[in-house]
Structure formats: structure tokens, C-alpha cells
Amino acid sequence: MENAYNNTISPHSEDAPIEWRWCIVGNIVESHSFGQDGESRIGTKQFRPGAKVYCSIWNWGDGGEHYPVIGFPRHGKRLITIVMPSKYITNFRIQKVFNPAVLKEMERDERNWFSNSDEDRDQILRYLKSCEDYGLTVIKNEIWDTYAEAAGRFPER
């Protein structure tokens, strides 16, 4: 199985479900302009403003303009998985995901989600660094700080 950078991700056994995963997490923007008149909209049709979404990087050649995301919808209590424009997501960061429902949704989804390996952590951090260089809002949390402190710099691709 390969991820967006064409690096191998080890498949997980049905017998031993993964306890946690590394993931890119973001929040839905508070508001955005919509339509020809630039009407202001709160959140998105699917998610309320500030909603936490779990993002996968899926390399389909759109330059990172769209992300597959998992999150709890504006109307409803069950997780949904959709592809949405990255301009509606802010505060990208790396987190460990422990929520069993989210982990189950990641396993069920046909896209490749990151594992709990150090290699995947490093890959996410490199990706977030490139997002920051591109101008997206990236939050540097304790994982970012620990990694930068330990490594002294980001590894080369």
C-alpha cells in the first residue's frame, strides 16, 4: 500500500486493530465568501465553523487544493468522509488520533491514512512544513516542537 508521497505504508492486520494513528488535523473556517456577490457564509454546508476534521493527503494532482476529510457533520451525529476544498480548512496540525470511531472510519476508507510509525510522523511534519511555506495556517504544537528540537531541522524528502 502506498501513501501520497509514494512511500510504503504497512497494512494493518484485521486481528490487531491499530490503537492510534498520526494524522493531519484542521478546523473548518469561521466564515468564507460565496458566489458572485461574495456573500458571507458561516462554516460550510457539511460542517459547522470550527469543527475538527481529520485530513488525508491524497495525491491526485490538484496541488493540494482538495483534501479527503473525516468529521462530524453540522447536522447529524455520525462521522462523514468527504473531499473538500482546502480553502475551507485552517489551523492544520499534527495529532495522534485515539478516537475509535475515527480510526474505524479511516480503516474503512479506501484512501491511505497514516499509521503510527515514526516515518509517517516525519512525513506529515514535512508536508505541514511545505503547507506553511505555501501560506496555509499551520499550528506548531508540542509534537512539532519536540520533533524540531530533537532533529534540529526537517529531514530532506
Structure notes:
- The protein has 157 residues and is of the alpha+beta class.
- A hairpin with an 8-residue loop joins strand 5 (66-71) and strand 6 (80-85).
- It is built from three helices and seven strands, in the order βββββββααα.
- The protein has a five-stranded antiparallel β-sheet with strand order 6-5-4-1-7. The chain has a two-stranded antiparallel ribbon with strand order 2-3.
- The protein has one domain (22-151).
- 25% of the residues are buried.
What is the element layout, followed by pairings?
Blueprint: E1 21-28, E2 31-34, E3 39-42, E4 52-55, E5 66-71, E6 80-85, E7 89-97, H1 100-108, H2 118-134, H3 142-151
Q: State the helix count.
A: 3
Most strands sheet: 5 strands, antiparallel
Number of strands: 7
Sum up the overall morphology in one term: globular
Order of helices and strands: EEEEEEEHHH
Give the neighbour order of strands across the main sheet. Answer: 6-5-4-1-7
**What is the arithmetic mean of pLDDT?**
79
| Share of residues in strands | 25-35%
In total, how many domains does the architecture comprise? 1
Rg is 16 Å
Poorly predicted sequence stretches spanning 5 or more consecutive residues:
4-13
Distance between the termini: 19 Å
Kindly name the structural category: alpha+beta
**Helix fraction by DSSP (H/I, runs of at least 4):** 10-25%
